Each structure stands twice: as C-alpha cells, then as structure tokens.
C-alpha cells in the first residue's frame, strides 16, 4: 500500500539551493481528497493571483471556478483530455483565461496569466493545498458547455485540493504519480 508520505518523498523537489517552503514542497499531484475547501481559503488563493505583476498592469486574466459535484465541474471534467480525468477528484476546478488587451501597446497576456496562476498555486500550497495545471482540454467544447465572456479565452484548467490519501487509487494512475519530475540544471548563465 502506498502512502501519502511515500508520494511526497518521491515527488517533492530536491533543490540544490535554499528556496521558500512553498517551492520546496510544491508538486502537481493527480490525486486529491475531494473535500470542500472553505471560502476564506478560496478567496486568499484568488487574491494572490490578483496581485500578480502584469505588463502595463493590464491584469489580462480571468478565473472561473466550480466545486466538486457541481454541474459546471462535471462539464469541465468532460472537456479534459481522457488522461486528465483524474481531475475529477479535485475539490475545485479553475479555468484560467487570458484577455487579449492591446490598447495600442504590446500585451504579454499569456505570460501575465502564467504569473497570476503561479501566485495562485503558491498561495494554495502555503495553505496546505496542491494544484495541477492542465493545458490539454477541448476549448471549443468548454465554451459550448459553459458561459464565458467573449473576451475571456480559456487557456488552462487547474485542479485544486488537499493531497489524496493514495489508498484508493487506480493502479495506472499510481504508477504515473510515482514518477519523479527531474529538472534540468543547465538553465542559467552569468554573462560577462
Ligand atoms: C501550462 C501547463 C500545462 C500543463 N498541462 C498538463 C496536462 O494537460 N496534463 C497533466 O497531467 N499535466 C499538465 N501539466 C503539469 C506538468 O506536467 C507538471 O507541472 C510538470 O510535469 C512538472 O511536475 P511538477 O509540477 O509536479 O513539478 C501542465 C503544466 C503547465 C504549467
């Protein structure tokens, strides 16, 4: 029987240098507890996204969310690629959208949405939750099934919740969960 501790041991980052604990503990699980998240935590998680930096302070992001069991949640799950359907165990699903605002200036909307999402993810981690971002979903179907403002372009779906207990879990999913996610080391160069 695999335990949460074993998953954490395998998946937890192994930084070579000290980093804040939210980064040192963060990984993206595919198995969640499904229990309800209190609204204060939800508000804090979105508040963190709100204060992300953005080009020209355009804040070109918008988030739609729903709770496990709700009609919109079930529709979101149905739009995910099959291999992403593990997300049905999440407590909350969030659709992160970008907004293509230009106003005559260069816009960095995908980058800015990413920054807002990372703020959200780290705040969630700080509060004891985990997130897994998913880019692989049927965007056209999602727009058919749910009502989005026409300026809001769904780009990522985020599964959010407490880490699952890993006792009742599909064998194949568990195998995927036990894979390490190593990081390349060659990514920074000090210039002369
Ligand atoms: C923009 C983006 C899209 C992603 N899409 C998917 C996805 O469709 N399905 C999935 O299972 N994971 C997806 N991931 C999760 C990554 O695979 C994961 O973050 C990566 O393997 C590193 O693992 P870690 O987050 O546990 O460190 C996505 C992550 C990002 C940032």
TrEMBL record:
Q: Which UniProt keywords apply?
A: Oxidoreductase
Q: Give the Pfam families listed for this entry.
A: Nitroreductase (PF00881)
Molecular function per GO: oxidoreductase activity
Please report the stretch or stretches of sequence annotated as the Nitroreductase domain: 23-71, 112-162
UniProt xrefs under CDD domains: TdsD-like (cd02138)
Which PANTHER family does this chain map to?
NAD(P)H NITROREDUCTASE YDGI-RELATED (PTHR43673), NADH DEHYDROGENASE_NAD(P)H NITROREDUCTASE XCC3605-RELATED (PTHR43673:SF10)
Q: Which family does it belong to?
A: Belongs to the nitroreductase family.
Tell me the protein's name: Nitroreductase domain-containing protein
């Amino acid at each position: 029987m695999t335990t949460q501790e074993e998953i954490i041991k395998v998946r937890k980052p192994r930084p070579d240098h000290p980093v804040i604990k939210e980064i040192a503990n963060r990984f993206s699980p595919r198995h969640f507890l499904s229990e309800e998240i209190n609204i204060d935590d939800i508000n804090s998680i979105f508040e963190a996204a709100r204060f992300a930096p953005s080009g020209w302070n355009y804040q070109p992001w918008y988030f739609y969310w729903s709770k496990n069991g709700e009609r919109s949640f079930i529709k979101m799950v149905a739009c995910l690629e099959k291999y992403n359907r593990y997300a049905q165990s999440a407590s909350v699903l969030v659709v992160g959208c970008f907004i293509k605002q230009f106003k005559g200036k260069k816009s960095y909307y995908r980058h800015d949405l990413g920054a807002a999402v990372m703020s959200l993810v780290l705040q969630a981690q700080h509060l004891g939750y985990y997130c897994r971002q998913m880019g692989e979903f049927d965007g056209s179907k999602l727009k058919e099934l749910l009502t989005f403002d026409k300026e809001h372009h769904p780009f990522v779906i985020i599964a959010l919740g407490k880490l699952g207990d890993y006792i009742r879990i599909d064998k194949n999913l568990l195998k995927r969960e036990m894979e390490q996610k190593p990081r390349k080391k060659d990514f920074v160069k000090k210039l002369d």
